[in-house]
Amino acid sequence: MAFEGLSSRLQNVFGKLRGKGKVTEEDLNDAMREVRLALLEADVNFKVVKEFIAKVKEKALGQELQKSFTPGMIIIDIVNKELTELMGGTQSKLAKAAKSPTVIMMAGLQGAGKTTTSGKLALMLKKSNHKPLLVAGDIYRPAAIKQLEVVGSGVGVPVFTLGDQTSPVEIARQGVQHAKDNGLDYVIIDTAGRLHIDEALMDELKQIHEVTKPDEVLFVVDAMTGQEAVNVAQSFHDQLALTGVVLTKLDGDTRGGAALSIKAVTGCPIKFAATGEKIEPLEPFHPERMASRILGMGDMLSLIEKAQAGIDADKAAEMERKMRTAEFTFEDFLDQMEQVRKMGPLDQIMDMLPGMNKMKGMKDMKVDDKQVGRVEAIVKSMTTEEKRKPEVLNHSRRKRIAAGSGTSVAEVNRLIKQFDDMRKMMKQFSSMMGPGSKGPKGA
Ligand code: GDP
Question: What is the CB < 6 Å shell around ligand 1?
Fold first, then answer.
């Protein structure tokens, strides 16, 4: 799978950080050293790596890591956001000309996947109700025209060709005219590639560019070639003003260098990602999804965001003190419940925790939100005095609370009993602890 090495190395680094209650500057430096090596090994441009690490460090130190309960998570979150930025931040869409047809010129080295990608792009456009035309502009590679014709007929998209005796510039010009005459709204011009960049090729591409004035110049590049892909992209960009990049062969075991460096070095956004030799619709490239895929995080990120928004560190510390000194009241109980609830439905929170569904028995555990809501209603129906001094709760008060909360006296009794048990347990626990100590004596 693509990015496997990078992904597992980064997950390793963050696995160590995740469980930490405190992250020192030294921990951060250690982690960043490992991230740096992982990125370099994935063939990411060294300048890009240097800037990336500096940014992450600066942001991490700017956060009050000491105050947080999840300092490791904050760092992972920062890395995720910076990886996303590195790949362009948000999804970059295909251009659409104000006046039809939209002309897309494909460029890239031989074997990068231009012809295949042209077919995938045509299929993607066709599926979204457009009428594309493929133009066979590679007259040099034997069988290139035939290949495009096969691809075109496979996806049901017309292919414009004038054989291999007319100049590609003229083919491109007539191709665009053909689309205009036939009411086709996208023209995809497949061009010739060489094994290396040479002047004759660049001249020809520049002429095609001049004649067809493309709305989009897509640079097709094999993601497996790593940093070399970035160098070639830069040369093409200097001559042709590329508007976007298509990364191909992401199904292979590419290390990630191209995906992570190309935007940062050339300024050109990655617009599409291609996988497989079969002609399937081309997939738009989503930087944020790619970043969380590299970090192997999935929904963890939404959970981190929720936790950060929902949990107040000062409040939680106060709560911990109260539990230790057994000053815990119904007011605190409610407060704590609200903090957890701010994070969203409990079932969903459980689902977002990685590995939770893999743990034995966890799968069947149901968290009953309705039940939590009823408990909340009961506590809210108490007066301030009752919340602070639950011992005043006699039968008539309990009856009033049940009526006020739409529950039954039995339910109110059960909750008070549970609360009492909890307080007793806290008292026992705190009597076992010495002043200031955080664990049971002698344990
Ligand atoms: P061109 O010379 O740039 O037009 O490249 P082609 O479209 O002919 O592709 C070169 C080779 O790469 C062909 O064997 C394609 O089947 C293969 N190829 C193209 N795109 C992909 C891809 O996304 N994944 C894989 N695995 N192979 C691809």
Answer: 108, 110-116, 193, 248-249, 251-252, 274-277
Instruction: State how many domains the chain has.
Output: 3
Q: Is residue 35 part of a domain?
A: yes
Of 44, 67, 90, which one is at a domain's C-terminal end? 90
| pLDDT of res. 82 | 94
CA 432–ligand 1 middle distance (angstroms): 69
Annotated binding site for GTP: 108-115, 190-194, 248-251
Domain coverage including residue 19: 4-90
Residue-by-residue DSSP string for 77-146:
HHHHHHHHHHTTSS--PPP--SSSPEEEEEE--TTSSHHHHHHHHHHHHHHTT--EEEEEE--SSTTHHH
pLDDT in tens, 324-373: 666 778 888 877 777 666 665 555 555 555 444 434 344 444 456 677 78
Output the CA 249–ligand 1 centroid distance in Å. Answer: 7
Substitution site in 277, 278, 280, 282 for ligand 1 pocket (most atoms within 8 Å of beta carbon): 277
Look up the pTM and report it.
0.70
Mean pLDDT of 270-283: 92
- CATH number, residue 226: 3.40.50.300
Residue 104 has a pLDDT of 98
**What is the atom index within ligand 1 of the atom nearest the CA of 276?**
24
**pLDDT, position 348:** 54
C-beta separation of 297 from 273 below 8 A: no
Residues 115 and 251 in one domain: yes
